[in-house]
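seq as requested:
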Amino acid sequence: MYTEKVMDHFQNPRNVGEIENASGTGTVGNAKCGDIMRIYLDIDENQVIRDVKFKTFGCGAAVATSSMATEMVKGKTVQEAMEVTNKAVMEALDGLPPVKVHCSLLAEEAIHAALWDYAQKNGITIEGLEKPKSDISDHDEEEEY
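struct tokens:
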């Protein structure tokens, strides 16, 4: 059911924890399944993500997508992090079962929520970034996947 990469990121998650005084923190959840994901970003003066951590309460797929998403944005610029989509996270994990696709959307939204927090704290606008929803179960699922 799960790919080797999903199992690896679930059993050996990367970047678990939190960053004190993070440049940006984003928390999103899905009320329908109960998953909650929080991403912490440490962004330097050149808008490069120096460090990223996560805390996730949820299923194995939620942990795996959090772990993979943090790996995908670490060392990237804010604008490059904006390009990390739920589809990119799923591809990096060699796929997810259809009933777990929402976990990859949580990862994308948590990154965007942390970037939104960073932008708000610094009085800047990040191109293409919209105010995040705190509960992704509000999204129209047909449109999102």
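Residues 14 and 67 are 5 Å apart (CA to CA).
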